[in-house]
Amino acid sequence: MEVLRYERKLEDVTEVIGHAKLAEDDLAPQSQALFISDSFEDYKLLELNSSIQTTLSEGQRVVFKGEEHEKAVLCTENETYEILEAETSNTLLLVPELIFAFPSKDGTAQNGETGEQNGIRHLSNVVVTGIFNSYLEVRKMKPRLRKLEELLAFSEYKGSELEKEVLASAGSRLYSRDDLLTLVQASSRELDEGLQQIAACEINGKWRLLDFDYCFRVLSQIQNLIDSNSWPLNAIPENETVDTLKDLFPETIVRHVFHQFTTPQYERNEEGDALFELIEDKVCRFLAEALLRPLANSQDATGFDLQQFLAAWQHSVPEGMQTNVKQLAGLAVIDDSTGKTPQVKLLPEKSLPEGASERLQQLFSIRQQWTLDEIQPYIEPVAVNAADVNRLLMKHARSFMSNGKRCYTARHGQKN
Amino acid sequence: MSIPILIDDGLEKSWAIVEIQGDLLSRSDSELFSQYVGDLHFSKEGVPILIIGHQLLYGKVVNLENPLAVLHRNRKPSDSDKTQTEYIVKALVKKKLLFKTRPKPIISNLPKPV
């Protein structure tokens, strides 16, 4: 079919300039007639910040990521961005060959070189290749790492003798790093940090979590070994530990647990074995969780009597280590509401919802009021930075002073 | 699932956007494809002037702080039966002509005063 296309002529353009009461002398000689293309390509507009732009132009990996039921995100190698559709009531016309007919600074026309063209109006046709009422915007966000833990939770490693059983259980699937990178909405760097944060361990190329009780058994054996050899807590030989325990647990696992709870001293003993120091806060925190876990799993939600807990806890840690309630931040809370003897209750940060608003609602349903110190460790993980903690608290909670301490409670009128 | 975004080898850096208020509608209600929209001029001071129908619009050139990438969805057959999708950045738009003032009507058929 032949399309009858309108042809814009220079005379028409000049005539309209007259009708519009524009002085031709005030206009640059380049005029452009806008046409809409015969058909549109499947284009999307995406607003880039300078960081994404640099990443793209350096040829680094930038991807949209998400399963069907997930909101898509954009990931660079290092960062994750939320994708928002910005709608506008204006209309955006995409014009590939638009000419910016700027006059040069001295007032003469830019394309005046040929002399005879100078001052004479000429007309080009330019084509609109897309019409948009929205574009995509990005906003930096925390990676959605909760899914990482959920995926790995089905196949927790419980020791070689239980491996068959674990792998046969429903929902258990083993994931390589590449599998996880495709499934989890996080950048490559954030995924590695996430794996480290949840203390995942690579066993035969697949990433696994260690079952808590299993990990506890390994750590207890390391503790026993330290005790029986009277090693100072800051001079524990790595290879000797691994060698001694490898009959009880696979070598990879011992090494993994060993590194979880120690930090290198960059010194060697006489045998040339690298020395490590037990990390006090990590060990104490882990052993506190070991004490509180059995109670949390029982039906009645009573906590551990604070005084009894503190004694048992101090007793459970290696000699020379000092327990401190600060080590419980984000793991357990002390309930000292009036009229009761203070109780310790397990409340792991990762058991709370990932969304800030839902998370605060749940925190306030557990307890009506929180001091800043108490609530902070539960908000930090969902905040982009330190300032964001305050912003989230201001948005979702009401603050007041009590006994000289800043406290937070639920906002009035917020239901559920 | 992850869909890569790649920069086109022949990335265009001079594409522009013309932003107008409201919508573009055809007078005869027909499709907009292949239609003539209007005339664009620049004043000698660099002010863009757009004439659409009987409306005269003055605008300004805006440099976009964050450029808009023009993404083109590309489905390419891969080794397996599935097609692989990728987005190609065809162009980066760094400038737009923004027409946000109220259009001035053009009255062309006035009889000339005698």
From TrEMBL, chain A:
GO terms for biological process: DNA replication; maintenance of mitotic sister chromatid cohesion. InterPro entries: Dcc1. The keyword Nucleus does not apply. The keyword Nuclease does not apply. Keywords: DNA replication. One of its GO terms (cellular component) is Ctf18 RFC-like complex. Belongs to the DCC1 family. This is Sister chromatid cohesion protein DCC1.
UniProtKB/TrEMBL annotation, chain B:
Pfam families: Ctf8. It is found in: Nucleus. InterPro entries: Ctf8. Its main location: nucleus. It comes from the Eukaryota. Keywords: Cell cycle, DNA replication, DNA-binding, Nucleus. This is Chromosome transmission fidelity protein 8. It comes from Laodelphax striatellus (Small brown planthopper).
